[in-house]
Design goal:
Among the domains are: about 185-275; about 300-330. Helix 6 (about 90-115) crosses helix 8, helix 8 (about 130-140) packs across helix 9 (about 155-180) and helix 10 (about 185-225) packs antiparallel against helix 11 (about 230-330). The chain has 11 helices and 2 strands. The chain has a two-stranded antiparallel sheet. The chain is flat and about 155 Å long. The chain is mainly alpha-helical and about 325 residues long.
Amino acid sequence: MIWYMLIEVIFCIIHCPPSFNQVFTFEQYGGSLDYSLDMFAFLIMLGRIYLIWRIFEHYSSWNDEDSEEICNSCLCEGGVKFAIKAELKERPYTVVISVLVLSIMVFGVALRTAERPFMQISGKDWDYVWNGMWCIIITMSTVGYGDFYPITHLGRVIDVVACFWGTFLVSLMVLSLTISSELTPQERKAYDSIKKKEDRKNLEIAASNTIKSALRLRLFLKKNPMIADKNKAGLINKFKNALIKYRVLKRNIKASEQDAPFEYILAKLNEKVSYGLEEIKNKCYVYKTLLARLDTSETNQLQLKVYVENLKDLNAKVLNKLEVIKKGRRL
């Protein structure tokens, strides 16, 4: 803990010293690259963005003393890890978008700072801060248009780190979208009911179309009994298509209805298992509490025995003292 504190103190002490600008010159791609001392200090100072993490750690409602007690009572580990999971569960898009915007700003400014000294040779306008942020955006999103890209070694290192970090954030956003789009059991029940209603409606429409096609074909054949097969082929094909559509739709609805009881059984089984596990967890907590109380009572009993023994010794000493006093008076 002390080493972490010392490292953090040293990290926060670093700053851009006024009136002190030592320049370091490097050779790269046939040109000179001038990096100043305050530029290195500035890049290190950008890392202080982690202090936002400290603010979240100390002021989050998911990480206070009450939340810690509740986590302990529920037999789960609290702390910062639980607080992050809770925030991602409660406000996934707010957290991901906030981190994404901060990352674009920090990496964009760092990339601009690293590329500006080599701007005349590269031919890219890195004076404009939005160009650095634009380069980070197309890097994080793995688009890579190629209009802006780092040339210096330090800029490439920053861009590679931004690429990996952006991939992580994008995957986290996709995961949040997937979780938020999942239906709850109540929503799943409503969805199945509405889907069944729509399927029944479509089946009725298909059945009515089949009946209409059959009646049209029947009336046409009744009015024109001697007509050639070529002329009645169109109505026959319409009737066949309507009948096939009806049968396919009916078969699909029947298959989905047969699958529904199995899903219902799985949902009920999952509910019973969850209830049983919750009951076992509560009983384990009660058992753990009773064991703790028994240990406390045993400790108290041992202390009480020690106190009783000490009291007996003290009583014996007092009685001996009284006997000595009585003998002295008799003499």
